[in-house]
Each structure stands twice: as structure tokens, then as C-alpha cells.
Task: inverse folding
């Protein structure tokens, strides 16, 4: 058995269903061996998108997404994909080919120090120098990627190692890593302490982040919140922890969040942060968050606790287990006055005005998401489209919302949506982009067509890089440098080139019907939605 | 395979040590030990690296390290005209007073020093070149060694030759 056959065998042992990638000589042997296993291979159009597709796949199923690329430029093109996954704690195993072991360090053709380049954006990385290490390294990589705080793991495999004969293939049943032992179960004393604080609280609040999805704790969070009638707010990564219309869901926090959620954060006397980083976008002044309140911070990553704000009660562990343990401790609290108070904030009108010359993006997104099927997935790109989406999307029970929250990587939506669709063909998947992010990822229409997966793509078109334009409007005296995208490409022609149905909305008339046609279309469809460049998110 | 001792003078910038160790890992060079500390001028850091490899690799190491922006100078500290020193601390288990005396006599022989004593253990420090430290550890192995901490070597060339004058 060769090294590359062993690599393919490892993926079989991990029950990998699909590998996204792009070949080159340094990884061709691996793909050759992978072909013999029957694992689906998806040829992307640029390596970065292999990472994003694997990410969409991983987020949909809660399993490790796998991508494989060649050495040097191939691997370096994947760097942004890896960083995007790292910032959102998405479990990936990224395999890169490497030049011959003897050539490493000689600046050989297509050689780059990929493990070095990715050092600060991977959870762990390996450069395999001995073919016999392959089974152990792969076993560890999958384990590290999908335990504790999830994240990408990189495996760099020189071409001679892929070609070498392995002595014997034994896939380790157990992983023994002396230095890596994530805490899963929360300390019961800490949980008890938190619960006795909760008993005293008058205005408790849960702030949930993306960690809820990563730990599979959606059900547990919901039943805990419902049991004690605790209002819930969420971060951008936490959109969908509760359905948008759930009576306890008060929306997204942060400088792009809603009034009700931010007021709730300020006024609560007990805040339970769970699976959230207290990051700069979510909490502008972490120092003031502690005023007049008890903070319980639950996270599987102890380094997150106290990184931005020092909690009163830290609980290290997996959210699912912590909520399970917590709901066994019986307490009763009355939050009806607090909930009534927060409901008043919901009634406040949104001060944001939109142009009536084109489509109102806020209304459009609300209509779009209301018309989407049950259990559908909405993927937002980055820019104004992302903020409008976060504020106006309606996620129903079983629905999902994905976006590149931490890294803010433009061009994430389309490849992520393709990966999400491949992970679960029964789900309707809609990607919403601006015209900037769209043009960074539109080459993947070819992948989508060749692979026979159908997603719905919306382009909110204003011919500008809107979020930067908005910044220039507010902070740089309307000097619109470097933000004019202009009117190319013509999206109808582009849709034709890929045999995709095309829809266009230039005003509000008949919008609801048009959205339904667009969503009901068999196969992939593209909808161009004309937005006034003067529309803003603030 | 042979080893060489390199003495570097580098700008004391943030991340300089990781740039240098990163160069070694990226090019698959082997480091046996690396020590760093400030010099008489706080703008500079002195780094002593013991590296192993064949002649070609060792020559490449010198050239590649010299190329790094932060590196002011690199030179080989040849054994015949340099002095190397390494500090090593060893903690050994002791059973009774006799046992302690026994160990203390070996310590004296090597001109090492007992620096901490407890009921059940003894901590010894030894300063010397690598061979001397190795030999001492070998002697200590006949007792039960609990812990060892070695600094890796620091070195300077003899006499006034090849001193890099700092501006």
C-alpha cells in the first residue's frame, strides 16, 4: 500500500463522503488513490472555494469538511479559506501536496512553506516526513478538528511520501495526545453556582453564539430558555439558535444588531454568554458589560473566557452538556415583567430609510426568507448584504443561517452554499451576495452545474462596494475611491452562459410573486436585485 | 552529520526569535539548541544556535540566516578559538544522609554546586561545555534523576578578533 492509498483509506475510515479540491502534480497521486474509494471528488474552480465548500458542508452536518490541494500556489490559494474556517471555528481537514522531501527548503518549483504560512490560522498542522505516520496523523487531525473548540487542521504531504510504501496500515482506534484534552463536561459546582445566581436574578438574559451549533446544543438551549422563560439574544454567528419569531428571541446584538437585543444586554442583571467570544463586533465596550450584572461565560475554549471580559462565573465545557446538567437543577423564576419590558423595545420603529427608486433590500430579504422552504439554509456573503440579511432574515424552525462572521471573507456565500447543498440535498439553499462578493466567486457556477447541485443565488446589485462606500460617505467626505464596480458583467448573459434561470427585480412591484418564481424554479436560478447605491446599513 | 555553533547578533525586534526558528523549520534544518539574551546594547540580542547537518546544509544555514533582515551578523564559533558554556540544573532523589554525601562528592569532583536541598531530593547546578555537562549527567544517572533543565550553550570567541562593533 502506498502513502496516497493510505491517505485515501484514512478518509474512508473517517467516513468522509466528499473531498473538495484542485489537483497538481504534488497531490495527483492522492486523488488517484481517492478515485478508487468511491468518495466523491469535487473539482472547484479556485482553491479558496474548496475551503468554503468544505465549510458549508461541515456547518450543515456538524462533521469535518475535507479539502485537498496541490503544493505552493495551490495551498496558498487555500489560505483564506482556512483562515475563514478558523475564525468561525469550523472543523476542516485540509490536505496539501508538498514537493519531494529532499527538495524542501531548496525553493523548489511550486514549493511554499505552507505549514509555516498557516501557523497562526490553523488549530494544528502536520508536515508528514515518514509514510508510516499517515494513519496516526490523519486520525489525530480529524480528532483535533472536531473536538473541543472546532477548527481547521492542515496536513502537508510531500509527493515522495505519497508514493512510498507503507509498512502496514493500522488505523488507530484511540487517539492519545498528551497535550490535547478538551474539557467537555462543565464543572458541576460552577453550574450550581450559576443556577443559584439565576434564582436571584430579576432580569436574566442568554447571549448565544455560533458555539451552540458547533456543540449541537440548539435543542438544549431552547428547552433551557423555555423552561425558565429567559429571553435570548444572539451574535451574528448565533443567528438561528432560536427561530426568528420565537417569543424569547430578541434578536442580534452588536453594532450591527437590533435595538431590543442591545437594550437587553445593557439592562439585564444576569448575562449568560454561551459559545460566544464577546468579540469587538458584538460587544463594543467589553469593560462596561460587567456593570451591575452577574456574567456567566460558558465556552469549550478556556482561552475565550476572560479574553475580552472577566466573568463572574466561568464554566469551561461543551454547551450541550452544560445545559443538560443545568436543566436537572430545579429552580423557578418569574421573568414576565422583564419580558414585557423587552417586548416594548420590539415595537420601536426602525429609523433606517431606504430609497424608493429601487428595491428595498430590507423588505426584499424579509420576503425572500419568508418564502423559503422549511428547513432551508440562507447563506449571506459579506458587506451591506450581510448586515441587511442579519437584521431582516426570518429563520424558521429547522432553518439555518451561514455567513463568514469572524473573518468577513467576501465571496464566501456561493461556495459555502454549494457545500451546504451537497451535504443535504433535501434542503433549499439560497446564497445572498453583493455584486463585489459575487464576482469573487461566480466561477463556481461551473462547479455547481458540473456537479448537478442547484442553489439559488441572489445578487443585491448597486454597482458599488457598498459597505466601503458607506464608510466613505460617513467618514471620508463622500470621496468614493476604489469602490465603483460598474455595470459589468451583465448578469443575464452570465446566467445564460451557465444555463441558469435568470430573474430581475428593479422595483417593488410584484416582488413577492417574482421571489416565489425564483425559488420554485427547478434547478439553479440567479436573481439580480437592483438596490440604490445610496441605501445604507446605518 | 556534524554540528556547528553559530553566534548571531540580531535586532531586538518583536518576533525576531520566531523568524529565526521559523527559517529553520521551513527549510528542514535541525536545531540542537538555541539560546537568546540581550547584549550590552539593549537594541541587540545575541543568539547562539547549535545546528546539525552535512557541510552543504551548514553552509546554507549560515547564508540563509545572514539574509534575514533582522540579522546583523552570523559567524561560526569554531571550537579551537571559542569558549562555550552551558548551565544545567539536575534534581536527584536522595534516600538518606549517606546518600547525600555520596552525591555531593561527585558534585565536588565536577566543580558543580548544590543549590537546593530537601528531605528527599537535591538540586545541583553545573556550568561547563557540553561534553562536561553530558559527562556529569551520565554520572548522575546512577542515582535517580527527577528532573533536568539545560539552557543550551552560549558562546564567545577568544581574544579581540571578529568583534562586531555596534554603531
Result:
Amino acid at each position: 500500500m502506498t502513502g496516497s492509498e493510505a491517505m485515501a483509506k484514512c478518509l474512508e475510515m473517517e467516513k468522509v463522503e466528499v473531498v473538495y479540491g484542485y489537483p497538481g502534480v504534488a497531490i495527483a497521486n492522492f486523488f488517484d488513490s481517492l478515485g478508487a474509494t468511491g468518495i466523491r471528488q469535487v473539482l472547484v474552480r479556485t482553491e479558496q472555494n474548496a475551503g468554503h465548500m468544505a465549510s458549508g458542508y461541515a456547518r450543515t452536518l456538524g462533521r469535518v469538511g475535507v479539502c485537498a490541494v496541490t503544493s505552493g500556489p495551490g495551498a496558498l490559494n487555500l489560505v483564506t479559506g482556512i483562515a475563514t474556517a478558523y475564525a468561525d471555528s469550523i472543523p476542516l481537514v485540509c490536505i496539501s501536496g508538498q514537493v519531494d522531501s529532499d527538495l524542501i527548503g531548496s525553493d523548489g518549483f511550486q514549493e511554499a512553506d505552507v505549514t509555516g504560512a498557516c501557523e497562526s490560522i490553523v488549530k494544528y498542522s502536520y508536515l508528514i516526513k515518514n509514510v508510516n505516520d499517515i494513519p496516526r496523523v490523519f486520525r489525530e487531525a480529524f480528532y483535533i478538528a472536531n473536538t473541543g473548540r472546532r477548527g481547521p487542521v492542515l496536513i502537508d504531504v510531500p509527493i515522495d511520501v505519497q508514493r512510498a510504501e507503507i509498512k502496514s496500515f493500522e488505523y488507530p482506534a484511540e487517539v492519545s495526545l498528551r497535550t490535547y484534552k478538551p474539557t467537555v463536561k462543565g464543572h458541576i459546582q460552577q453550574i450550581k453556582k450559576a443556577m443559584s445566581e439565576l434564582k436571584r436574578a430579576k432580569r436574566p438574559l442568554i447571549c448565544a453564539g455560533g458555539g451552540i451549533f458547533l456543540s449541537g446544543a440548539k435543542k438544549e438551549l431552547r428547552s433551557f430558555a423555555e423552561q425558565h422563560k429567559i429571553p435570548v439574544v444572539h451574535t451574528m454567528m448565533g443567528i438561528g439558535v432560536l427561530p426568528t419569531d420565537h417569543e424569547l428571541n430578541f434578536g442580534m446584538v452588536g453594532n450591527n444588531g437590533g435595538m431590543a437585543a442591545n437594550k437587553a444586554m445593557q439592562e439585564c442583571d444576569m448575562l449568560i454568554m454561551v459559545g460566544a467570544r464577546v468579540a469587538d463586533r458584538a460587544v463594543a465596550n467589553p469593560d462596561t458589560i460587567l456593570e451591575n450584572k452577574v456574567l456567566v461565560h460558558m465556552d469549550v475554549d478556556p482561552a475565550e473566557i476572560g479574553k475580552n471580559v472577566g466573568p463572574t462565573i466561568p464554566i469551561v465545557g461543551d454547551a450541550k452538556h452544560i445545559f443538560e446538567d443545568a436543566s436537572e437543577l430545579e429552580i423557578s423564576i418569574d421573568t414576565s415583567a422583564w419580558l414585557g419590558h423587552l417586548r416594548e423595545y420590539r415595537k420601536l420603529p426602525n429609523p433606517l430609510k431606504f430609497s424608493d427608486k429601487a428595491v428595498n433590500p430590507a423588505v426584499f430579504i424579509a420576503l425572500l426568507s419568508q418564502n423559503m422552504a422549511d428547513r432551508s439554509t440562507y447563506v449571506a456573503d459579506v458587506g451591506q448584504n450581510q448586515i441587511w440579511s442579519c437584521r431582516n432574515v426570518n429563520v424558521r424552525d429547522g432553518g439555518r443561517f451561514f455567513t463568514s462572521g469572524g473573518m468577513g471573507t467576501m465571496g464566501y456565500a456561493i461556495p459555502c452554499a454549494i457545500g451546504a447543498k451537497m451535504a443535504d440535498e433535501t434542503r433549499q439553499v439560497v446564497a445572498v451576495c453583493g455584486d463585489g462578493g459575487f464576482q469573487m466567486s461566480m466561477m463556481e457556477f461551473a462547479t455547481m452545474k458540473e456537479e448537478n447541485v442547484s442553489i439559488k443565488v441572489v445578487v443585491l446589485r448597486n454597482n458599488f462596494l457598498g459597505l466601503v462606500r458607506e464608510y466613505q460617505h460617513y467618514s471620508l467626505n463622500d470621496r468614493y475611491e476604489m469602490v465603483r464596480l460598474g455595470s459589468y458583467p451583465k448578469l443575464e448573459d452570465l446566467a445564460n452562459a451557465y444555463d441558469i434561470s435568470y430573474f430581475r427585480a428593479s422595483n417593488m412591484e410584484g416582488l413577492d410573486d417574482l421571489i416565489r418564481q425564483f425559488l420554485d424554479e427547478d434547478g439553479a436560478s440567479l436573481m439580480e436585485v437592483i438596490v440604490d447605491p445610496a441605501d445604507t446599513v446605518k | 552529520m556534524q554540528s556547528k555553533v553559530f553566534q548571531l547578533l540580531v535586532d531586538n525586534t518583536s518576533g525576531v526569535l520566531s523568524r529565526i526558528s521559523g527559517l529553520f523549520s521551513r527549510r528542514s534544518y535541525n536545531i540542537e539548541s538555541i539560546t537568546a539574551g540581550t547584549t550590552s546594547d539593549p537594541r541587540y540580542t545575541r543568539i547562539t544556535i547549535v545546528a546539525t547537518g552535512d557541510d552543504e546544509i551548514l553552509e546554507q544555514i549560515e547564508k540563509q540566516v545572514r539574509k534575514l533582515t533582522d540579522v546583523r551578523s552570523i559567524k561560526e564559533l569554531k571550537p579551537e578559538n571559542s569558549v562555550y558554556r552551558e548551565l544545567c540544573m539536575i534534581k536527584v532523589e536522595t534516600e538518606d544522609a549517606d546518600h547525600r554525601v555520596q552525591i555531593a562528592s561527585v558534585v565536588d569532583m565536577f566543580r558543580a554546586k548544590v543549590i537546593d536541598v530537601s528531605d528527599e531530593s537535591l538540586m545541583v547546578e553545573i556550568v561547563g561545555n557540553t561534553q562536561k555537562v553530558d559527562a556529569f549527567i551520565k554520572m548522575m544517572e546512577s542515582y535517580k534523576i527527577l528532573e533536568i533543565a539545560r539552557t543550551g550553550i552560549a558562546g564567545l570567541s577568544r581574544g579581540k578578533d571578529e568583534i562586531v562593533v555596534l554603531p
